[in-house]
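re: ur question from earlier - yeah i can do the single chain one, its not a big deal. heres the input i used so u can compare w yours
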Amino acid sequence: MTAPTYYLHHVCIYDGEPRTNMWTWLKWYHAIPQYYWGGEEFHLTDQGHVDYTFLACGSAFQVQLEAPPFQFEYERNWAERHGSGLNHVCWIVDSAKASYDHLLANGCKPAQEYTEFGVYNGFVAKDPEGRWIEIMEYVGDFKTPDVEFRPFGIPGLQMFGVTQFTNDLAGQVDWYCAVMDLRPIHGSVESGIVYLADRDYDAASRNVAMILAEPTSAAELVEYEKHGALIGAIDYQAVDFDRAYPDALAAGFAEVSAPALDARTGLNTAVLREPSGNLINLREVFTPNE
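and the output i got, formated as tokens:
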């Protein structure tokens, strides 16, 4: 079986008040590429309605705020267990059906079966540690718009990926590289954190990564105790780190830990909390050691 090519697209946050909370993101140099608030341009189901807002900041990776009531029962079950949280990473592929067959043949379990929704084809699978992987294949004219891929605003802010906690860092790095054709670009298993890039990664033009990490800080350990091996934080870097951090506080993000050197990455890093309660890592610009 020829493996599909997977491209990082967005991370989903379950957010009870996206119309209110999105203003904090917008005040921190974000834009809204698209929204779907129950309109017929996006798929509706007999189980629920659509309430999606996509936010982006300086890269191909986006944040999707999703509000209840959720469309599907499996989503409502997740929300009942975890509450407001970082829920899943979505990947774009050329053939969702090929991806469905490929992932299920390589240790994934379905959370939502492969479905042709009309505007896109897709499904949700659970990786070997239970994290959700959403797969989308664009069909017809539907597409969530991209935004400018270079660092944005006065501090040169850029959302470049998401950190996912893992029980088995070495094993999960091997799985994502072997099954989803990712490649390490920074960090190491020994350091407790590994940056993985898809095949379209380019440090100058498409700086997007998925980070697998062992939780170490007090805030990370709290999230890990609550949710297990799921998504830990959304990751940003800034050309002018000293400006980006106070701008985040002024926009309404709450401080979790002030700027300090992160021993795992060697980068000056601050940790914040966004309005729904999820962690945000803000770092200096890093140079990949691939």
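Residues 231 and 265 are 18 Å apart (CA to CA). not sure if urs matches, ping me
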